[in-house]
């Protein structure tokens, strides 16, 4: 594979293709201006309009959400882990049956490994269009989204019905549930009662890492952010690392699984050696770009310009993408 062909494993921020009808709340006031991006993997979109940039299995999915100020994502849950870092803007994350159990505000660069088993939502509380980058455990991302009952009910009032097959049907487009397909059932009271309602105090220490704390910790060596030995100790099926200018190394290294590089600040030059059918080459990444590095390919990533530089790194571990909330 030539360096030019390797470019197909890079999704540039400016080339991201949004979907505005990805989920059941696409018509619900307050949530109807969301843009959803599926960058790597199949994602969890409920719409056939969702574009997938890179479909190569990685053991996890990479996506993004773009929202204007005051726009929110409705309360939902996944069967596997979900972690976000803020690329642009200021965001409030909230959780619980009605979104009132706890909340945290994240600034640019902060990362949140959201506990599974609880409904969560988020909104852009900044003054400009904001973007958060998402990591979902598993190649199939757990088979979809579980919505809080009121989200499904509100969506029906605005013309969107979710079938038990996980697909959306829009009455505003003349669509209806196909014969033999029932609506997605609401969670029962018994199921809802099993869901924990952790407070902000319970969640923050083990699930949130702040950008400037990580910048300080990465002064000499990269920081493992999410992982069995990470700042946020967990085994969600992937590990997330963080490095800055001081901890970047020109030493070549490889991974057993495809890995993903996601610059937060600054421009980064990624170099790779020849081998496994690949020619040697390099590429430069900017904030918002996402690069998939093939497994077993020797590579490095180093800042290519002066100034602030930071980068997130994601790689699968081969573990099941299991629950993060320990209770």
From TrEMBL:
Task: Report domain Cupin type-2 positions.
Answer: 69-132
Question: Which Pfam families does its entry note?
Answer: Cupin_2
Give TM regions: none
Protein name as catalogued:
Cupin domain-containing protein
Species name for this entry?
Answer: Yoonia litorea
